Amino acid sequence: MSKYHFIRLFNQQFGMTPHQYVLNCRINRARQALEMGNSVFDTAVDLGFADVSHFNRKFKRTFGITPRQYQRQLVT
What we know:
Distance between the termini: 51 Å
Helix content: over 70%
Number of strands: 0
């Protein structure tokens, strides 16, 4: 099976590409790490994001707020 065929089948089954699925899993793990009190920098590094700004953009696109705002929201 070609990689393009696999991507099409995966998209039909899950409604997203394999890359989007993996990114979604990483963002959800990041949310859990932030809830446990890990720093934004450590979370970004541990989950393999290129840098903190890349992590911030992906997190904000998913949840509508930055990781720092998310942590502050948990405290209050």
